[in-house]
Amino acid sequence: MDSYIYLDNISIYAYHGVSPQETKVGNVFHIDLKLKVDLGQAIESDDLFRTVSYADVYRSVSEEMAIQSKLLEHVAGRIVRRLFAEYLTIEAIDIKLSKQNPPMGADITCAGVELHCNR
Q1: What is the pLDDT of residue 106?
Q2: Residues of 65-101 as b/e, b for ≥16 C-beta within 10 angstroms?
Q3: Please, what is the angle between helix 54-65 and helix 72-86, to 10°?
């Protein structure tokens, strides 16, 4: 059985970007996470300590989003590295990180990056 924990459409206000305006004004960022985890023990035990707490994952992601960076690639990579380091039972991570209304002179809802990472 493949099993996953996911957090969809996390919305965080942060200050990532290349232009000075982005780092001063900030923007809304959206994160989708899919974590491959063996949920077998949690299914049988109904014990939080037999799974990965999505509340704890959210805290980790929020803390990484608070660290200002120029590139979304860098932010997404930091999030992946941190989650792999903190949660040893995570086997793989899919992350999509996007910036709402990026300042690029285009009529676009968002732009971003997507990573698919295996431990």
Answers
A1: 83
A2: beeebeebeebbbbbbeebbeebeebebbbbbbbbee
A3: 140
Q: Which residue bears the tokens 């732009």? A: 111
* Per-residue pLDDT reduced to its tens digit, 19-41: 888 899 999 999 999 999 999 99
Which of the residues are catalytic? 99
pTM for this predicted structure: 0.94
pLDDT tens per residue across span 88-108: 999 999 999 999 988 778 888
**Topology given in CATH for the domain delimited by 4-118:** GTP Cyclohydrolase I, domain 2 (3.30.1130)
In whole angstroms, how large is the CA radius of gyration of the chain? 16
